[in-house]
Design goal:
Layout: E1 4-7, H1 17-35, H2 56-72, E2 75-79, H3 86-95, E3 109-113, H4 119-129, E4 134-140, H5 146-169, E5 172-176, H6 182-190, E6 193-196, H7 210-218, H8 223-236, H9 245-258, E7 263-268, H10 274-288, E8 296-301, H11 310-315, E9 320-327, E10 335-336, E11 352-353, H12 354-371, E12 376-381, H13 386-407, H14 418-428, H15 434-443
Parallel strand pairs: 2-3, 2-4, 4-5, 5-6, 7-8, 7-9, 9-12
Antiparallel strand pairs: 1-12, 10-11
The chain binds 5-phosphoarabinonic acid (PA5).
Length: 446
């Protein structure tokens, strides 16, 4: 049984059967283009077969490195940005806990740096590391991205000062291109253990490579089960449109987009899903948002955000649709006891599990929002086990690719990301950017 399934029950008043029929051929063509590798960006399709076609020797090295880190470190510092950190963090928070670092556990705490340029954040993580044993996993496909490169300078220095050059070799792990880039060169020179991000796997599609798998394994998750879930999805999601929830989800998104619903809010009723939604936003945002097109991906965690964005969703501009990930089986439940005095009047909620209250919040909200003019897609996630996580990752990756092809864009490039970098480098005086610098400073009124 698929652990991640589409439920279209709440879409009935928004999408008629004939509309699905009309778009079916387009979805099938997009899927065929993907499977036959004939579309734009087809040199970045390594992720399609990753769940079965991965380097088994490297996989064994990932597990060994994770064991080593678990045995000699209190803290693992994960350095990376965008696709080079979001998947790992999403996985760890979903499968372990958003409070992972606060749990009583026998695995290292994990902190993520190099995903911003805040000096405050960096200083705080450095002070957390004081007096602790640490290892570092620096992740950058290009090996040249400014944010992680800057953070790596700081943590390499810290590890070398603490453990010496030889000790550092035992504690620094680099995940990068197999041959190119500054990080690869430096790792080879210093003798760090390296893991490979294949040429044909883009950053946001790389969670099932060493990029995601090493930190995920350090957190104590079973990475064999993650890959097994993804392999199940790879097999099942090859089916024809009528039996393929992934293609249907891509098709529904496109129907809604054509009806003016240009914002998708990914939602779940558990805070452990918050980083998963960040991963989703990067996957779909960077893949689809180009050529002045695309659905803007956003997210909410309910019931928390019903007290912030709930008003807008119920009543504001009708520009969005919701995709609710309905986690069927929470990791834990909590029995709500009766209170003899009932001074707070909450006894109507008691003598049952808290998950029942959460489910009523979900059902009440979806009815209210649907009646308020917001189409709701439901994706049912059986549980938050490794297998289900792996399945869901592959589902979203494939849906994103199919959806992007339906939209007529290349889902595998990200030309827009370069613009801010050029400006930043020019303003910082990076050699080679001198001409742009004066023009930008004039615009800033300097
Ligand atoms: O999805 C992508 O390609 C990007 O988000 C990259 O992952 C991100 O820019 C980091 O790049 P790199 O791994 O080269 O440092």
């Amino acid at each position: 049984m698929a652990p991640f399934k589409l439920n279209t029950k709440y879409l009935e008043s928004y999408i008629a059967p004939h509309e699905m029929e009309a778009v079916k051929a387009q979805a099938e063509l997009a899927a065929k283009t993907l499977e036959e590798r004939t579309g734009a960006g087809n040199d970045f399709l390594g992720w399609l077969d990753l769940p079965v076609n991965y380097d088994k020797d490297e996989f064994a090295r990932i597990k060994a490195a994770a064991k080593k880190i678990q045995s000699n470190s209190d803290i693992l510092i994960v350095i990376g940005i965008g696709g080079s950190y979001l998947g790992a963090r999403a996985a760890i928070e979903l499968m372990k806990s958003p409070l992972y670092n606060n749990l009583k556990k026998d695995t290292p705490d994990i902190y993520y740096v190099g995903n911003n340029i805040s000096p405050t954040y960096l200083n705080e993580i450095l002070s957390i590391c004081e007096g602790k044993d640490l290892s570092v996993n620096v992740i950058s496909k290009s090996g040249t991205t400014t944010e992680p490169a800057l953070a790596f300078r700081v943590f390499r220095d810290l590890v070398e000062k603490k453990y010496g050059k030889d000790g550092a070799k035992e504690r620094i792990f680099a995940t990068t291109d197999k041959a190119r880039g500054t990080l690869k060169e430096l790792s080879d020179k210093e003798g760090y253990e390296t893991f490979v991000i294949a040429d044909d796997v883009g950053g946001r599609y790389s969670v099932l490579t060493a990029v995601g798998l090493l930190p995920i394994a350090v957190s104590g998750c079973d990475i064999d089960a993650v890959m097994a879930g993804a392999a199940q999805a790879r097999e099942e999601l090859k089916a024809g449109f009528d039996n393929n929830d992934c293609y249907k989800y891509a098709a529904i998104r496109n129907i809604l987009y054509r009806k003016g619903k240009s914002i998708e809010i990914l939602e779940a009723y558990d805070p452990s899903f918050a980083m998963m939604a960040e991963w989703f936003k990067q996957l779909f945002g960077e893949s689809e948002g180009k050529d002045n097109r695309g659905i803007y991906p956003s997210s909410c965690i309910f019931s928390t955000d019903l007290h912030s964005m709930g008003q807008f969703i119920q009543d504001g501009s009708r520009v969005m649709f919701e995709t609710v990930v309905d986690i069927k089986k929470p990791k834990q439940d909590f029995f709500l006891e009766d209170d003899a005095q009932n001074l707070d009047g909450l006894n109507f909620l008691t003598n049952q599990n808290m998950s029942v209250v959460n489910r009523c919040a979900f059902e009440g909200t979806i009815l209210a929002h649907t009646e308020g003019g917001v189409p709701n897609i439901v994706l049912e996630l059986e549980d938050t086990t490794e297998k289900s996580f792996g399945y869901m990752v592959y589902f979203f990756e494939k849906a994103c690719a199919v959806s992007g092809y339906m939209l007529g864009i290349n889902p595998f490039n990200q030309p827009g990301v370069e613009s801010y970098k050029k400006n930043m480098f020019a303003l910082l005086g990076k050699p080679g950017y001198e001409d742009q610098r004066s023009a930008l400073e004039a615009k800033l009124g300097r």
